[in-house]
Every structure is written in structure tokens, then in C-alpha cells.
Amino acid sequence: MHVEDIKAALRKQGWTLASIAKELDIGPSAVSHALTRQRSRRIEQVIASKLGLSPHEIWPQRYKRGKVSHAPICQQTGSHPISQTQRLDSKTLSLAGTAGRGHSLGSSQ
User: Fold this and answer.
1) DSSP string spanning 60-75?
2) Which of 30, 95, 99, 105 lies 20 to 30 A from 66 at CA?
3) pTM here?
4) Can you tell me the distance from the alpha carbon of 37 to that of 73, in angstroms, rounded to the nearest whole number?
């Protein structure tokens, strides 16, 4: 399910991310992150139970073949893929920031 579909389904049941966070005694951002970025079996289970579904039905990409994937969410869903070229460009940019402090761009540190 798409994150917005999950939020809409929760709203239809009378729940908000904030109300779920309050019930779990955690910050609202933790619930939001569990939907989009950072895995939390506990939060996933609570959300699934509020919707009358299993976590596997909501996040099949996280629960492949009965196994829980611990890969970052963006890798599981294919969102914001980073190519090897982009990784190299990021490294070059970070090194460029140190060039004025006596480091050369070509050095490997």
C-alpha cells in the first residue's frame, strides 16, 4: 500500500498517526518514519491491527516470502534509487568541501 493510502485508511477508522503515537507512548515522527523510512515491527503491527490487516498485506515488499527484510525502505520500494554515478558525485562534492582546507579532491581519505 502507498503511504497516503495507509493514512487515509487509518483516518477512515478514526485514527491519526498522532493518536497511534500517543497510544504507543512514542513521538508522532516515529510512526511517520515507520511508514516511510525506518522499520518498526511494533508500529507496523499496531497499524496493521487498526486496519484489520496483517503487516504483510500492507507492506508486502518488507515481508518477502515470510522473511522480514531489514534493507532500508527506499531500497525495498525502489524510491529514490541512487546510481553509482550519483554516489561518486556525492563523494566528490563532500571532498570538494575540504579542498580549501589543505585536502585535494583526488586524495582518498
Assistant:
1) TTTSGGG----S-HHH
2) 30
3) 0.59
4) 5
Segment of 29-33, 60-64, 91-95 carrying the highest mean pLDDT: 29-33
Tell me the pLDDT tens digit for each residue of 49-73: 999 999 999 988 888 765 555 554 4
Average pLDDT of the segment spanning 1-7: 92
Rg, Å, the chain Cα set: 19
- Given a cut of 70, whether residue 79 has pLDDT beyond it is no
- Terminus-to-terminus CA distance in the chain, angstroms? 42
| 48 exposure class (CB count in 10 Å sphere: 0-12, 13-18, 19+) | middle
Please give the grid coordinates belonging to residue 94: 563532500
Owner of C-alpha cell 582546507 = 101
Residue 104 cell numbers, joined: 585535494
Q: Residue 12 carries which side chain, given as an amino acid letter?
A: K
94: burial class by Cβ within 10 Å (0-12, 13-18, 19+)? exposed
